[in-house]
What does this fold into?
Amino acid sequence: MIVTNNIKVKDFFKEEALMFVEGGIKDVFVAVRDCVHKGHTILTHPLSGSVKPTETPFKSILLTETTGSLNLESLNLIEQAILMLDHLENNSVTGIRYKKIWENIGKQQLTGPERKILEDFREIDFTLFSNAIAAD
Amino acid sequence: MKLELGYIYINDIQFGPESKIEKDTLYVNKDELISMLLADEHLKSVSLDIAKPGESVRITPVKDVIEPRVKVTGSGNVFPGTLAKVEVVGSGRTNVLKGAAVVTTGKIVGFQEGIIDMSGKGAEYTPFSKLNNLVVVCEPQDDIGPYAHEKAIRMVGLKTATYLGELARGITPEEIDVFETPNIKEGIEKYPDLPRVGYVLMLQSQGLLHDTYVYGVDMKQSLTTIINPTETMDGAIISGNCVSACDKNTTYHHLNNPVIYELFKKHGTELNFVCVIITNENVYLADKERSSDWSSKLAALLGLDGVIISQEGFGNPDTDLIMNCKKIEAKGIKTVIITDEYAGRDGASQSLADADASANAVVTGGNANQVIVLGPMDKIIGHVEVVNTVAGGFDGSLRPDGSIEVELQAITGATNEMGFNKLSAR
It folds into this structure.
């Protein structure tokens, strides 16, 4: 099962079980944590790529479709990812700047270079995710 | 395996009517080189520029840095499996243009980062400010996607380094260094009482802008395996990685891996440097388990007493690093890990996305969240417009006077996780 807020991933993996999250990376992480509590296991690392989770608004994570008992490794993984995101949002200069930017992004009509940058972020998340899912 | 590196010292670089090396100056025939590079149909235009130590020059966004080398004797050629055939390298003699480098720039994605300042505060944080750089600025054809664009620029860097390296083929080096590791049986017989030490070299392997190639093989497709340390000196490992600027290993870093060089200095006296274990950093968790299972299995099979582990990148590679450390320690093998940190602007927070009690011997490459102000430079080589979006997408860190407030993260090589840099703290 794919949990994502990236339209590119949603459109490409039409045949797969997919939960589309409206919102930013924090919302994706929280949705994944909810799934872990429901018994899903995480299959790809939430902190994919070296572009920081504060710098890009898109994230896709693969979990098992079936559920079982609570997987503590998965829980630890997503909690650590949330901690890292919170840490960068509050303790790094770039993270602080970006938090404001992503909060406003939905209210703006993006044009030109900024739209291209968002498209690039979608592509990076898509490539990291599809390389990972190829191993599944 | 035994390799001689012959150093030809370069202290100046200039454009001239003929590409050659005269005394310690590298001359480059601009037109000839550009013409050669434009044979790649993916490129619309190529321009060359020069950046020397101390100049008021900023290069951005940096994709890769490569040191020019040429294989004079011994099997194979530099950059096997990529530019050269796949023949095994790492023996014979290779000449090196020491003090020179090729820097490629390319705005493959809108948010790309990577700054090299040749003077001022920023120059202290990148090793490439000390080199005589030939900078290659490429524009791709309009219709090629980011994958083809990245590959084109990767090849441009390697081809340029090979073209310059070729100029050193017939020159007698000023200095020769010799590097030799015996095979396993010879090593045990020769150094029976020295601790057996290996180096686990973790390679970035996640996808576009995050890949590494070994003999042309995409490392994300590879099982953990063994390589002779001298093979890296002939370009067996090349970088397709450009994120983050501070902790990506450029091809220059792979050619000049400081862990390998330092282990060689002690080899045969304090320790027996047995081999290098290369492993990857895939996003798929089962791959991480498999790769770290294999690095610990190989370390035990080789009868190692200790390993140094270096990682590359941020976030999920921290998980690989801790897995490698834990599993190797569990085999009774001591580890030391080298990493950088994202410890917040005050340096006080947890630095890694993962941790374990057995990771108790750590060398840090520095805090990538450290804020620094780079003064304005007279000249910018590369893509001027990205300066305002450096270290991310929509940022406005460029000030009206041309100075930039950035985290160390944005400076190429600033917190290198092989421990390449010389800054230290008490």
